[in-house]
Amino acid sequence: MDVRPIPCGIKHGLIIRTWLELAVGDYFILLNDHDPVPLYYQFLAEFPDAFTWEHLEKGPTDFRVKITKLKAVEG
User: Fold this and answer.
1) How far from the centroid of its chain's Cα atoms is residue 71's Cα?
2) CA distance 61 to 33
3) Which residue, 61, 55, 48, 7, is CA-closest to 29?
4) How many CA atoms lie within 13 A of 67 on its CB side?
5) Closest by alpha carbon to 48, among 11, 12, 73?
6) CA 65 to the chain's CA centroid
């Protein structure tokens, strides 16, 4: 999921909706132009123990994160 061209104001909501639609055990790879640390903390606050977050690439220009859904949650 390449979110680099998406405006910042809607980026987190789109990413979270995409993740919520995943089946348990499924994942997507997020591609961004900066390290999505604020998004990680948002996931921690809203969906503790329901996801894994694995950095596949850490800059300098591209950041790829594999986000896996571990259990069903309500959004």
Assistant:
1) 15
2) 6
3) 55
4) 27
5) 73
6) 7
Encode pLDDT of 13-36 as tens digits. 999 999 999 999 999 999 999 999
What are 57's two structure tokens? 């690439």
The set of residues, in sequence order, having a beta carbon less than 8 Å from that of 11 and lying 6+ positions away, is 3
**Residue 42's pLDDT band (cuts 50, 70, 90):** very high
- The confidence score (pLDDT) of residue 45 equals 98
Single-letter amino acid code for the residue at 7: P
DSSP 21-50: TSPTT-EEEEEESS--HHHHHHHHHHSTTS
